[in-house]
Specification:
The protein is of the alpha+beta class and 297 residues long. Helix content is 21%, strand content 33%. It has two domains: 3-10 and 164-296, Alpha-Beta Plaits (2-Layer Sandwich); 13-161, Alpha-Beta Plaits (2-Layer Sandwich), CATH 3.30.70.
């Protein structure tokens, strides 16, 4: 059984929205869902995303195959909230316009029960160059955007909220094989929890706030790089560990993130080759939420 380190994951509040993508078939749906969530970049002020779950034709408004995806954005607490929200809406519009809209047969619906909503007419609807029109479909206010195959439909108002991002686990493993095996088990357990995503899935690169090269953003968390053990004085990699995958978790609530972390720990703690389960934190410098691993057991 793996040792559960007496430490905590440091998480922080983030802006999120939750949408449903539907499409004619699985191929088009997966391209749209994976494409629009493919670039996790919230740590440098952009957005990140992930697929929460897949839907069958009985679970969607238009009775086609679907997926629930989440987009996340950073909150700049040094500025009015409206500044962060405006930037978030703009970033979300990029992902919808550049990946979902261009994928044949796709539609987008709101999938978050929230009184807080933003209007996508200006940021997405006007892709119709003024020829777009509105209808009521399935009890929703929908923008119809004329494109060449021939139309894209998106619900006009998408809900948003403030959730918790950056929950994480570090799986300290004997080798690459055990790291991938444990990572896959962790992801399977996490994806069974409602309302969470893993934007990086099995992440091979943990980062740290301080860096010698601020122009490129966060750099490698060098004390936890196995190849630097024995080469640097501040290595924290145990002798029997040669691979440390990180699993990052964002969720609609702190409880959802905790539930997902707990599910992952129980899924991997007895996996052969997992020596220790730990987490990334930065002495409280990154986020206000501290999720202690041993309290999850």
């Amino acid at each position: 059984m793996a040792t559960i380190e007496d430490t905590y994951a440091e998480a922080f509040d983030g802006l999120y929205c939750r949408i449903s993508i539907t499409a004619r078939d699985e191929k088009r749906l997966k391209r749209a869902a994976y494409g629009c969530t493919a670039l996790p970049m919230v740590v440098i002020g952009r957005t990140e995303g992930g697929v929460e779950k897949w839907l069958n034709s009985k679970q969607t408004l238009d009775r086609r195959l679907g997926a629930i995806v989440q987009f996340w954005g950073a909150i700049d607490e040094s500025k009015p909230f409206e500044v962060s929200l405006k930037k978030f809406v703009k970033e979300v519009s990029y992902r919808i316009r550049q990946e979902i809209l261009v994928e044949p047969t796709t539609c987008v619906f709101n999938a978050l029960d929230s009184e807080k909503k933003f209007d996508v007419m200006e940021s997405v609807g006007h892709c119709g160059d003024g020829y777009e029109w509105e209808t009521e479909n399935y009890g929703r206010q929908v923008i119809n955007i004329p494109i060449m195959m021939p139309d894209f439909r998106i619900e006009r108002h998408l809900g948003y909220g403030i959730g918790v991002s950056g929950g994480n686990l570090w799986l300290m493993c004997k080798d690459e094989d055990s790291a991938l095996r444990a990572g896959d088990k962790a992801l399977e357990a996490i994806h069974g929890v409602e309302g969470v995503i893993t934007p990086f899935d099995i992440c091979a690169a943990g980062s740290k706030p301080e860096t010698r090269y601020p122009e490129i953003g966060p750099t490698t968390n060098h004390p936890y790089c196995p190849s630097l053990r024995g080469k640097i004085p501040d290595s924290k990699v145990p002798d029997n560990v040669n691979s440390i995958p990180e699993i990052v978790i964002n969720g609609l609530s702190l409880d959802a993130v905790k539930e997902a972390m707990k599910a992952a720990i129980y899924a991997v703690k007895d996996t052969k080759g997992v020596a220790k389960i730990s987490a990334g934190n930065y002495d409280g410098k990154l986020g206000k939420h501290k999720i202690y691993l041993r309290e999850l057991l």
